[in-house]
Amino acid sequence: MSTAAPGLLASVTDLHEMELARAGGADIVDLKQPAFGTLGAWSTDALAAAVMLWTAWGEQLGEAGRPALSATIGDQPMVPALVRTAAERVARTGVPLVKIGLSASQHTNECIEALAPLASRTRLIGVLFADEAPDFAVLAALGRAGFAGVMIDTADKKAGSLTEHFDPLTLGQFVAEARRHGLMTGLAGSLRLEDIPALVGVGADYLGFRGALCEGGRTGTLDPVRLGQVHARLREPSDH
Ligand SMILES: O=C[C@H](O)COP(=O)(O)O
Prior knowledge:
Layout lengths: L6 E6 L2 H9 L4 E4 L12 H18 L6 E5 L7 H13 L4 E5 L6 H7 L1 H4 L3 E7 L8 H8 L3 E5 L8 H4 L2 H13 L3 E4 L8 H5 L5 E4 L4 E2 L5 E2 L1 H11 L6
Parallel strand pairs: 1-2, 1-8, 2-3, 3-4, 4-5, 5-6, 6-7, 7-8
Antiparallel strand pairs: 9-10
The protein binds glyceraldehyde-3-phosphate (G3H).
């Protein structure tokens, strides 16, 4: 059975990298500051400038010709009021997809519930962390709260890549369970070029990258050549 290629999510740190990611064929341009943490956030002013650029892309290229735009809310403790405030700050700038880290904690479900009112106005993506042994039962809570999607990433970038924490079978179960709850899906976590063939077969909607796209690691600078290699590998025919 052949599988449709997943889209490419590229995390970027500034407007210049945003342009490089668009030109390099990213399907989602993801605003993130890795120097500030796993899901380090852009400042409010920088997010507003990014939304202006993304709006200009829409005028020049049309809705279908521009990538989607997402942004992270920063690494937040699992305190409902703090998570909600951070997510609302990003949503208010007009970023259409807001990515929210959901660490494994006894308060994770309360945080998800606290985001339900925002989820009715803005598309929210919950991010689970493979190195925290997440409970996939959280997928039902995300679906109930009206989230648009879910990603699985790694929190500790020194503790191994996604593929070292989960095998393709487990990731396939994650994708199937997320779909059952109406969620689009993404996989990320120190993914390298050589991880792509096995992950394409998992069937997620997106694969996310930062470190593999950069000169000097994930806090370095986006390299169009590396981006081109990842983009090409994602589109190589697969037969899984
Ligand atoms: O959302 C995707 C991430 O930015 C992935 O970052 P990473 O490839 O450095 O783990």
